[in-house]
Design brief:
The protein has helices spanning 33-40, 63-67, 92-104, 233-246, 290-293; strands at 4-10, 13-19, 50-56, 76-82, 117-121, 124-130, 135-139, 144-153, 156-164, 168-173, 188-189, 199-207, 215-223, 227-229, 254-260, 263-269, 274-279, 281-287. It is mainly β and 295 residues long. It folds into 2 domains: 4-140 and 280-290, Roll (Diaminopimelate Epimerase, Chain A, domain 1), CATH 3.10.310; 144-272, Diaminopimelate Epimerase, Chain A, domain 1, CATH 3.10.310.10. It has an 18-stranded mixed β-sheet that branches. The protein starts with a strand and ends with a helix. Bound molecules: the ligand N[C@@H](CCC[C@H](N)C(=O)O)C(=O)O. It catalyses: (2S,6S)-2,6-diaminopimelate = meso-2,6-diaminopimelate. Homodimer. One of its GO terms (cellular component) is cytosol.
Length: 295
């Protein structure tokens, strides 16, 4: 049996995708942190910000605990790993690519995508569907603020809003020149507020948004378990919430256009939920060699 892979991305947040519908190709004891790191290595591996294992929920040992009563409704599970091998609760770019792969691999009928399908994640179930022109949407649930924090980059301190999208974010709105930030190293942050680490967003608000026009922001992100990436879907959602919250005492509601280095995402925010929209692309498919795997 072959060890097939796909390479794909959502706004240049790129992933190695491993089809494993029946959970027998890449069980946890085979796809350990060391192999994930090797796969994501850009020179000696395939290269990626993370790995997505495409597996049925019933083959994932964690699934009953994280999906609870929704287990039976989620046929598929996005088993996400960061490039360092750690698990993340949620990945907004990855889950759009995940649905795209289910369709292109013939594991899901395209007609099921119009109204969306529930996909299991370690952050719980998420509804994902297909939109126009190669785009996908995902209902991420409500943004949950949990305090204020600080990030420090090369001695420069940025105040930010802590927001959970299932995974933790610190959104720092700033007038500083985003291009001048050195994100080659992890920003320092308050470990008491973020005991499991944090994804840090640096955001410039380009337009605050009015009754008739969407808000517009620009974002750079340093991701937990990866480093700087070209895009972060959950980060875009946390950013959209924080950008709207900064301008108002009212419950947050509105659409925010989020420009990331790898493209453009759109986020609809309401008190009830957050909907992320953006592209997903499969770049290549292939097969891992025995020589590289060492098996
Ligand atoms: N790039 C992802 C987020 C991936 C997980 C993140 N690094 C974490 O550890 O929480 C996205 O598009 O949301």
């Amino acid at each position: 049996m072959s060890d097939r892979f796909l390479l794909g991305h959502g706004t240049e947040n790129d992933f190695v995708v491993l089809p494993d519908p029946d959970g027998d190709r890449w069980p946890e004891d085979r796809l350990g942190a060391a192999l994930v790191q090797r796969l994501c290595e850009r020179r000696s591996g395939l290269g990626g910000d993370g790995v997505l294992r495409v597996v049925r929920s019933r083959h994932v040992p964690d699934a009953p605990a994280v999906l609870g009563e929704h287990l039976d409704a989620c046929e598929w599970f996005m088993d996400h790993r960061n490039a360092d091998g750690s698990h993340a609760e949620m990945c907004g770019n990855g889950i759009r690519l995940f649905l795209h792969v289910l369709v292109t691999e013939g594991l899901l009928d395209r007609s099921a995508c119009a109204e969306g399908v529930l996909v299991g994640t370690r952050g719980g179930p998420r509804r994902v569907g297909a939109g126009p022109g190669g785009t996908y949407w995902v209902d991420m649930g409500p943004a949950r603020p949990f305090g204020r924090g600080e990030a420090t980059v090369a001695g420069q301190v940025f105040g930010g809003q802590a927001v959970s999208m299932g995974n933790p974010h610190l959104v720092c709105l700033t007038d500083a020149d985003l291009d001048a930030l050195d994100l080659t190293r992890r920003p320092a942050f308050d470990a008491a507020l973020f005991p499991d680490g944090v994804n840090v967003e640096f955001v410039r608000v380009l337009a605050a948004g009015t009754e008739g026009a969407d808000a517009h922001v620009r974002l750079r992100v340093h991701e937990r378990g990866v480093g700087e990436t070209r895009s972060c879907g959950t980060g875009a959602c946390a950013t959209a919430y924080a950008a709207l919250a900064a301008g108002s005492e009212e419950p947050q509601r509105g659409t925010v256009v989020v420009d990331v280095p790898g493209g453009r995402l759109t986020v609809d925010v309401s008190p009830e939920t957050t909907v992320l929209r953006g592209p997903a692309v499969v770049v290549a498919t292939g097969e891992l060699t025995r020589e590289w795997l060492g098996t």
